[in-house]
Amino acid sequence: MRARWLILLLLGACSTEPGDELDDEDFLDGKADGASTVNIKATHLDVDLAELTAVATIELEKYGHVSLEVGGLTIEDVTDNRGHRRYTTTGGKLRVSNVRGPLVVTYAFEQQDKADGLLPGGSTVIWPYFCGNLFPCHSQPADGTTFTLAIDGVPAGKTAVYPASIDAEAPPYMLAWAVGTYGKTSLGTTAAGTKLSAYWLPGGELAARAGTKNLVKVVDWYEKTLGPYSFGREMATVAVIWGEGLYGGMEHHPFFHVAKDAMSDEVTQAHEAAHGWFGDGVRLRCWEDFVLSEGTTSYLSARALSIANPALEAKIWADYQEELDAAIAEGGAPAWPAGCNQIDIIRDKLFTNLPYMQGAFFYKDVAAAVGAEVLDGVIGRFYKKYKNKPASMQDMVDAIERETGFDPKPIVDARLRKRF
Ligand SMILES: [Zn+2]
Fold first, then answer.
1. 18 alpha carbon – ligand 1 mean position (Å)
2. Are residues 241 and 312 in the same domain?
3. Separation of CA 88 and ligand 1 centre (Å)
4. Among 1, 5, 252, 298, which one is least packed by beta carbons within 10 Å?
């Protein structure tokens, strides 16, 4: 132990000469890409929507080399505790070596047209790995970050709906804003004190009210069955205008987005709300674990809505079965592919309805064997254990077997590992 301390002291003494080791040329050139870089702790964004400029203050988990995704940004200045820093931007990465203290990046961004950043409709979507079109980031969901967000330059007569702060670690793709001519109503408060609201665009009030009829009951069930919501005291559904290629909703907690045309759909509303617990609350360890987000939320939303209004249950599962049949006919990657971050979730066709629907039916089959309430207990304890941390689908499968004695492997093989 003492010998190691001595080496550390000697190394420390060598590298603390003023100005020494400021710029590591190999790292800046991208030649040392295997070199370990530092994870993000907190992301603070000051955005000017009139100018499409922003200042990002990135707090790091420790000091060291920093590599951030900035593919769609024009970097104007980079500073840390030691002042202006030299940086490189090659291959969509901003590299700064030996960073001390928060990294402050001043930059410009642009509107994007492929559902990959700031959209023409006034809202943002950066799922799955397009955060670098909006702010300097690590797109891997395992590297959670807290956020603060401030937005200036909102056009007169419009409202920007966004969280001023997200105090628990979240996946980078969770952050979003929406700008529009919004109407708003309060939906009520859960027993745990979470206030729910709905925001609609002109002409959208009836649809918003229809889709959120049971939302307070649904969220109340999530809180009672799974555990406390970790992204603040308020939650809202926000109608947005999306272009082609996007449908349903997006888990931008605490103010999740639902496409204007899906606002009246109770299942979509309950699904996006459930991501506050799975996908956002419990993050994906690897992209291959996508089913832990989408399968779990598809199951939980069906379960919560069926308890809030038992008349809905048969129709929800009949619709899920139809969606499953269509997804199988279309094919794609298995709902739960092997490996860790070897897959491109879009190019390798993991983003199909298979993880959603095979995932939902996986849990339904397990519930048929062990009892739905027993399974609720397993999922609830899982959430409390991994809240604001990454987890894998294997962790869930293991928890089911450990806690119930039921081996779900045959269901895993038939539904999740099989390629259709
Ligand atoms: Zn989802």
1. 50
2. no
3. 36
4. 1
Quick one: pLDDT band at residue 6, thresholds 50, 70, 90? very low
Q: Is the pLDDT of residue 68 over 70?
A: yes
Total domains in the chain come to 3
Residue 86 included in any domain: yes
DSSP assignment of 184-204 equals: EEEEEE-TT--EEEEEE-TT-
Residues 144 and 191 placed together within one structural domain of the fold? no
pTM of whole model > 0.85?
Answer: yes
Q: How many CB atoms lie within 10 A of CB 25?
A: 11
**How remote is the CA of residue 247 from the centroid of ligand 1, in Å?**
11
Provide the mean pLDDT of the chain.
94
Based on the fold, state whether residues 407 and 340 are members of the same structural domain: yes
pLDDT band at residue 302 using 50, 70 and 90 as cut-offs:
very high
Say whether both 138 and 214 belong to one domain.
no
In 98-242, alpha helices (H):
205-211, 215-225
128 cis-preceded (ω within 30 degrees of 0): yes
Whether residue 244 is found in the same domain as residue 288: no
List helix spans (H) across 265-353: 266-274, 290-308, 313-330
Cα 251 to averaged position of ligand 1 atoms, centre (Å): 7
Residue ranges making up the domain that contains 151: 36-175
- Pair 67, 152 in one domain: yes
Task: Tell how far the Cα of 279 is from the centroid of ligand 1, in angstroms.
Answer: 8
Same domain? For 48 and 112 the reply is: yes
